[in-house]
Fold this protein.
Amino acid sequence: MTEVLVLLDKFNFRISCCESITVGLFAQEITSIAGASKYFSGGFITYTNESKINIVKIKKTTIEKYGVISKQCAIEMALNTQKILKTNIAISFTGNAGPNALENKPVGLVF
């Protein structure tokens, strides 16, 4: 994670996140490093479909058509977070933590 902060510093960038499957782990990890507030603007934990729609403004049609465990949803999560928090970079995490398949998709992550 320190390498990420070095790169953010080099380009004078700020980062944000939108987390579902990781439930705040990325934000916790990046903010555990001293000085992270210079680079990290904040993030959203959107564990439910409702929070994705209401907080990060994911289109309901995206969820209905592709599901929350999809590249399309992950991209929309990142782009909307970037716009809301006005950062250079936003990262999103969605996926299926298991133990069973969700949306007919295996356990795993989509970034």
Residues 41 and 66 are 29 Å apart (CA to CA). Residues 71-85 form the longest helix (15 residues). Residues 2-104 form a domain with the Maf protein fold (CATH 3.90.950.20). The chain has a mean pLDDT of 90.
